[in-house]
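TL;DR need structure tokens for one chain.
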Amino acid sequence: MMLERRRLRDFDWFLALLAVMIAVFGTWQIHNAVPGQGYWQKQLIGIGIGLMAMFAVAFTDYRRLVQLAPLFYALGMVLLILVLIPGIGLKINGQRAWISLGGLGQFQPSEFVKIPTVLMLALYFGKARRTALGWKEIIVGIAILALPVGLILLEGDAGQAMTYFPLLAVVLFLSAIRMWLVLAALTVCLVGAPLAYQVGVSTGTIKGYQQERINVILDPENADPRGYGYHTVQSILTVGKGGLLGSDTSDKYSQSTLKFLPEPQTDFIYAVTAENTGFVGAGLLLLAYALLLSKLIYDARRAPDRTGMLIIMAFVGGFTFSIFINVGMVLGMLPVVGVPLPLVSAGLSSVLATFIAIGFAVSVQLRRFVN
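>> reply
TL;DR here they are.
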């Protein structure tokens, strides 16, 4: 009884409350984006399930869960394989990435598999070390990431696959990777990206619509506003309509309600936020994210071991990347790749996975005084 009281007293209530506030704010924006379609009710159910999962993970010793990482990882790979099978996986907008949950919507395994992937990386790289990473360790880390990323690419969801790379990048950087390897990797990316794009175009690996989405960013003035440039143009118009404090027009005349803005409850929820709450509201949402990430980093610094620190920081890298990509996409600075905004975009899988990740951070924080 005394131990349970101590855990409740030491529970990171600020982190949990901040996450809930962002999620509830997101639910309000989902309601504004598509009123009367039931998305916001499903999101509330997702938040409720997510909170239960967060507390369950928080009050479980994360070190025990890390030891089960190979099992969770294997189950995750099975789910990613199952979703590729016609009749089991749902194909939406050209991507076979979901499994139907009936009235609750769709379940996206690729969101959940980030959790066991992080646990596997933390299990392998979490051991105490005094020397820099060797090639063998780097290759093992790449292999851990390559399997889920490869299966997700088979689903046709390149945007979701991209969100896995920051997980490995953060873990490698915090595991004493040699700096010349970091600089070499950055150089290869900067030099190789344009070359890879040209090769992809010439071989047909990069499809026509994917080229157009990139061209919209590189040459927006010549983009077809009714073609592949439509998403970006409408998103920028929606953001601009919000002004400083939000649009004063009724819901009947909003960009999302009139269906000018595509996927307003998911990919472009930040544009809806800017339209409804203006520059001030959109800025406050980013401030809330900054507070959330800062608290996670603070908890990582107080972790009792390297494993706990790597778990939290990997999730920080994943959250930061998703926020950056989604906001950049909405503002027309990055191509439209379908990356959700954590805790705000509609989707049971995304909100549940995020709360589970926060549960791991709380679990690490609760055990900083326990051997």
